[in-house]
Amino acid sequence: MNDTLPSGLYIVATPIGNLQDVSRRAENTLRQADIVAAEDSRVTAKLLNHLGIKKQIVAYHDHVSEKTRSGLIEQMGEKVIALVSDAGTPLISDPGYKLVRDARAAGHLVTTIPGPCAAVAALTLAGLPTDRFLFAGFLPSKSKARTDVIEELGAVRATLVFYESGPRLGKSLLALAEGLGDREAAVAREISKKFEETVTGTLSELAARFADVPPKGEIVIIISPPGDSAPASEVDIDAALVESLQRLPPGKAAREVAKALNLPSDGLYERAMALKSET
Ligand code: SAM
Prior knowledge:
By secondary structure, the protein is an alpha/beta fold.
């Protein structure tokens, strides 16, 4: 456990609330690090204090100057550099990918000390399918951009995972219910902390529940995949194509119908061409 670590970049996951969730490897790596690159040095100083570790902390996010990043990369040849974020796994809705990219390009050791991640923890709590999921980070706060993202995700056949904050939760759930239909969902809050809570229900039930009283703390929303609706019949497909062809050329009509009926568009294009030549 206390073998001397070789120089390089160590991506260290830290707790998402409960300090006891820091792993022994994470603690050991932070203890041996020459430099801790942190999103917010005050937050990381608290964790290090808790562990009784005193280290040089350097502020790091992906928008730092090239000079700052290349300075860290140069030092990786001789030093152990630990990358941490404020909570959870670095790079997951947190800074770090440019540092990892450049460290690897420079030929340095890049390794990870896996640990807590709110998205994964919430998936374990939701009681929804986990065989296929899409992590979508935070929804945009502007309403048009939010609607566009929700529309894009609507056809994805996977459980959806969003990060959210208390004040935005009600609005986001409402927009999700409107855009995705009334799917089963879960709101997991304050995971691993004193007031941990997971509320399940349909999106509209959850939107109603959190409409007037925004909850406190940190939140993950988990939404079940779209239901398995019966596949469209040939008659339905032809009717939809005929309607689309009145407004659109065959290629666009095929794509529109494919999206609306959740079908592959290639076969539809030939059918659209055939229907067009019949009229
Ligand atoms: N890198 C972190 C991870 O691995 O989960 C996520 C960082 S992201 C900037 C912060 C968001 O993660 C919060 O706004 C919240 O949506 C979610 N989150 C973090 N800790 C959480 C917790 N204890 N309970 C629920 N959600 C949490």
